[in-house]
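Section handout, structural biology tutorial.
Before the tutorial, make sure you can parse a SMILES string by hand: atoms, branches in parentheses, ring closures as digits. In the record below the ligand is zinc ion, and the chain has 101 residues. In the tutorial you will relate the predicted structure tokens back to the input. Do not try to memorize them.
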Amino acid sequence: MRYMICTFLLGVVALSGCTATQKGAGIGALIGGGVGYAVGKQSGNDAAGAAIGATVGAIGGGLIGNKMEDKNMFICPECGRSFSSSVEYCPYDGTALKSAQ
Ligand SMILES: [Zn+2]
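Predicted structure of the complex:
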């Protein structure tokens, strides 16, 4: 199931690899695009609405996906907390984080 979603989104988003962030961004873009299209359609501006919705959705979805990130997590060897791959040092004790994989 997970791989089916991954493969599906790869086709949609056309990104290499498939992290939770990318999946979140892809899902967000799809949902945002759909919502933006529906909202924009009511104001007679469906293309712009879809574009804006997709952008907002991708950003929001990326943020959500980043929190669900399970492949590129970094773990603090000192306290065992895990962080997203955007964090290099543990904010609690300053230890350099290690890749979870
Ligand atoms: Zn730590």
